[in-house]
Specification:
single chain; about 375 residues; alpha/beta; Aspartate Aminotransferase, domain 2; Aspartate Aminotransferase, domain 1; 7-stranded mixed β-sheet; 5-stranded mixed β-sheet; 14 helices; about 40% helix; about 15% strand
């Protein structure tokens, strides 16, 4: 790609130069197969499916446009869409592990990622060590058979930040592949590949889509690594995205930069409100200047998303319930990254530790920040 292109040019134009019939909106290629004009063309496609349109379980024109845009945004050589965030995560993980291997994984990872390492992969003789969000602890828990370091930065629920450059340098010197879930920051605000991370993962259900109407995942990195994941896992497991869902992501990408700026600006103002409220114990948002990790965060990120958490000054689950039920604009729902504001109390989640009963996660949506702060203020009156 033209490296001089800025983010807005990538989102609006890149990879769409040859849109059929000069269609302004790139078409949805709702086809399962593609035909060939000769024996040789057919043979070539079958021998190298990653580079040809043969069968939409592999490549599809609509899907490839989105993949090329995301790769360009992440400053990687290639990317592949999958049918869900976990399809992307599991495909990337399985592509680089075998029986007897060891993984170091951040403890505060997405719950289904945690289960993948802690339960599913044990069946195949792969073991994982879960560590706190600290670069030195990650490095100190590496073993001779460690083949992978799995990261989130910022992490799930607590939004702690890792020193990605330090971890990536160590991993490269020791032949260990690094993977990171970059869904929170998005490539608008963080590019882990520039810091040496090998594989970047996203739940495209979140900000890439932005409208809470798609379930999808992305894996991005060097072409050699992405081709390996594509040929070894994506084609075999079949967790591919349909053209229509890819097209919805393409539509969502048009406004990604604009939406993220709004989420970020509003999140900072919501943090200011919460930090100054007498009924709030603490706030977790690394891109706020009062965060203890702010200096590290701003050295790696250019901004933040709308997802943050805070603690109420209580350990009474009934008060947590009252607070949650008093919110009217923040809707009670899983996931995040859409236009809407959401709330997830840790207390409703599976196996919430007693010490986190008062932990509340919110997604700051695209409503006016006054509307959101008023909603939080009303709910806090009951606690």
């Amino acid at each position: 790609m033209d490296t001089s292109m800025n983010i807005s040019e990538i989102l609006t134009h890149y990879a769409e130069e040859n849109s059929p019939y000069n269609a302004m909106a790139f078409p949805i290629f709702e086809t399962s197969i593609f035909y060939f004009n000769s024996f040789d063309d057919f043979s070539k496609a079958l021998s190298s499916e990653e580079d040809h349109f043969l069968y939409s379980r592999g490549n599809n024109p609509t899907v490839r446009v989105v993949e090329k845009k995301i790769a360009a945004l992440e400053k990687t050589e290639d990317a592949r869409l999958c049918s869900s965030g976990m399809a992307a995560i599991s495909s990337a993980i399985l592509a680089f592990l075998k029986s007897g291997d060891h993984v170091v994984c951040v403890q505060e990872s997405y719950s289904w990622t945690f289960r993948m390492f802690n339960e599913y992969l044990k069946r195949f003789g792969v073991n994982a060590t879960f560590v706190s969000c600290d670069a030195d602890e990650i490095i100190n828990n590496v073993r001779p058979n460690t083949k992978m370091i799995y990261l989130e930065s910022p992490t799930t629920m607590f939004f702690n930040v890792l020193d990605l450059r330090k971890i990536a340098t160590f991993a490269k010197n020791n032949g260990i592949v690094t993977l990171i879930d970059n869904t929170w920051a998005t490539p608008i605000f963080q590019n882990p590949a520039e810091m040496g991370i090998d594989i970047i993962l996203h739940s495209a259900s979140k900000y890439f889509s932005g409208h809470s109407d798609v379930v999808a995942g992305v894996v991005a990195g060097k072409k050699e690594l992405i081709n390996h994941i594509f040929n070894q896992e994506i084609l075999n497991l079949g967790g591919v995205i349909a053209p229509f869902e890819a097209w919805l992501i393409l539509r969502g990408l048009r406004t990604l930069e604009i939406r993220l700026k709004r989420h970020y600006e509003s999140a900072l103002k919501v943090c200011d409100f919460l930090l100054n409220h007498p009924k709030i114990e603490s706030v977790n948002y690394p891109m706020h200047p009062k965060s203890p990790q702010y200096e590290l965060a701003k050295s790696q990120m250019r901004g933040g998303s709308g997802l943050l958490s805070f603690r109420l000054k209580t350990k009474d689950i009934e008060i947590v319930r009252k607070f949650t039920n008093s919110l009217k604009i923040f809707r009670k729902a899983v996931s995040w990254g859409g236009y809407e504001s959401l709330v997830v109390p840790c207390a409703v989640t599976r196996n919430c530790p007693e010490e986190n009963i008062n932990l509340i996660r919110i997604h700051v949506g695209l409503e006016t920040v006054k509307t959101l702060i008023d909603d939080l203020e009303r709910a806090l009156r009951v606690v």
